[in-house]
Amino acid sequence: MNIETRKLTLEDYDDLKESMLQAYDTLGGQIWGKATISKLLKLFPEGQLCIAVDDKVVACSLSIIVDYDEYGDKHTYQMITGAYTFSTHDPNGDTLYGIEIFVSPEFRGLRLGRRLYEARKELCESLNLKSIIAGGRIPGYHEFADQLSPRQYIDKVKAKEIYDPTLTFQLSNDFHVRKVLKNYLPGDHESKEFATLIEWNNIYYQGIDASARSAKTIRIGLVQWQMRLFPDIEAFYEQVEFFVDAVSGYKSDFIMFPEFFNTPLLHPYNHLPEMEAMRKLAEHTAEIVERIQQYALAYNVNIISGSMPILENNKLYNATYLCHRSGKTDEYRKIHITPNEQKYYGMVGGDRLQVFDTDCGKVGILICYDVEFPELSRILADQGMQMLFVPFLTDTQNGYTRVRHCAQARAIENECYVAIAGCVGNLPKVNNMDIQFAQSAVFTPSDFAFPTNAVKAETTPNTEMMLVVDVDLHLLDELHHFGTVKILKDRRKDLYEVRLLK
């Protein structure tokens, strides 16, 4: 007898089908179709293993890789397999998920199941995955269901007071029961549709190489912009490009400028009333945005272009632009206009709120005063926002304090990162823009994985500088599923809701 453990191939399907029909007799003879096996082999050939006895496949193990935090411990078999489409397979995930393992009844005395489990463990170690997780049947439970709860049955199997052909074998192969699952596999009458969520931990798991940045680690650059007069618009562009060049040199994914950082260009219109001067500045916005989009492409960095006035249908808005390094441009208009913006410039608020998809995740943008209204960021959080960018402009320290503490609250309550960037210094000879106060920062949620004060980093107050910060989106996933508190999950949606009206 020749026994070989190897990768499964599509040519093995006929043998596989015969073995499945024998093994699945108690489940109504349901078997994996050839097209399904073919799809698994294309998605993840290393994860599909088999044992051949004298060149005939008699045992099989099927697996996918998942980012387990996306599903958590309450998943079903249908959910974890993407309704059997395997769309859940993620080559960058952290867990080897066992979706099938069986041995033909004719060969169950040869310890072939143990060989498959050992092969799975070797695969898990070689791929540097954190663990193997699977839903395990408890086929002996139907004999005790009128006497014992599933938990009691499992405890007795652990204590070796009861023998279960599947669970006893799994426990002997160093798996532990993580949870009892209900309605895991419809049609499994022997298990009464209960299952054990079993896990084997890879003690050699190294996590993410400390010398490399995770695919979910995003680098943010903030510009704390010094207000200064420029002899012409080209000098302004030179200063903008200087910061883009410097921040992109650190391989940043995003760079953000502050609200109204281009208002030094108001100087030539200082003889006009503030409202007319701001409308004259709005004539430059399209050109400035086009130039910043060119910088985004040239320096390979996504740029949040501060904010600038735009005139449309004789209405003046305060708008910011997300200039993607792919060449795409998105716009957001400030929704809540401050009393001063209304009084001096006649500005009106925008009426569109959305999350923007980028190559580094889902981001939201609010401008200054907007962040003081928690409903906006909560709506963005419900749309999947991971990072919130807030360009701001405040003249006094108490105005800055409002923006800072509201932004920090938004990070905590929405389980996201919030970055704020403002202007500093004085700007003589420009009406209503004479003094500025700022301390730019990146805020985090408040839990053990984050800084104890929920501040990732911050600048020196009132000094022109840039801040470069790494944020880990994976920590947000862990917080959402396993945090000390789960703010987004624990909302009483039966009692209240926050939603857009248009």
From TrEMBL:
Domain CN hydrolase: 218-473
UniProt keyword Hydrolase present: yes
Keywords noted in UniProt: Hydrolase
Gene3D superfamilies xrefs: 3.40.630.30, Carbon-nitrogen hydrolase
Matching InterPro entries: Acyl_CoA_acyltransferase, C-N_Hydrolase, C-N_Hydrolase_sf, GNAT_dom, UPF0012_CS
Domain N-acetyltransferase: 3-163
UniProt-recorded Gene Ontology molecular function terms: acyltransferase activity, transferring groups other than amino-acyl groups; hydrolase activity
Protein family per UniProt: Belongs to the carbon-nitrogen hydrolase superfamily. NIT1/NIT2 family.
PANTHER family: HYDROLASE YHCX, NITRILASE-RELATED
Name by which UniProt lists this protein: Predicted amidohydrolase
Organism for this UniProt entry: Pedobacter africanus
